[in-house]
Amino acid sequence: MLVYFLVACDRLEEKREKKLRQSLPELQAALQAYAEANTANDVTLINACDSEDCADWELGISQPVTKNIHLNYPVDLFNGLAKQYGIDCEVGSIENGEREPVSYFGAHEGKGEAFLIAEYLEL
After folding, report:
1. Across the chain, where does the E strand assignment appear?
2. Which of 46, 51, 71, 123 is the least buried, fewest Cβ under 10 Å from its Cβ?
3. How many domains does the chain contain in total?
4. Could you list the residue range(s) of the whole structural domain that residue 15 is in?
5. Distance between CA atoms of 77 and 5, rounded to whole angstroms?
6. Chain segment 39-91, per-residue pLDDT in tens
7. Is 46 helix (H, G, I), strand (E, B) or coil?
8. DSSP 3-state assignment of 44?
């Protein structure tokens, strides 16, 4: 199964959007480093942040998973980013190029748990 983790960039109040814009370079660098460190696991960076409107941004990763234990590292990564930068995250599956969200977690949504996300993904 191909899963994705995205930084929640839409429907943000002004204060959170400003903080996201300020943190964007650091978030991009952290996700790029994670993707590069995990190329053997086919982790792919999602980085489409060219629009002036941050609601249109897509920033995150995708990776194939076959067991719920494979979710531990990306969930830990995004929990850390949420704590450090005050972001929320969307996680879901990708089928036929379409994203299907199953859960949200982060600074405002609460800490993500790999086991529960695996249940939502039916892993």
Report:
1. 2-7, 44-48, 58-64, 88-95, 98-106
2. 51
3. 1
4. 2-121
5. 10
6. 999 999 999 999 988 989 999 999 999 998 999 999 999 999 999 999 999 99
7. strand
8. strand
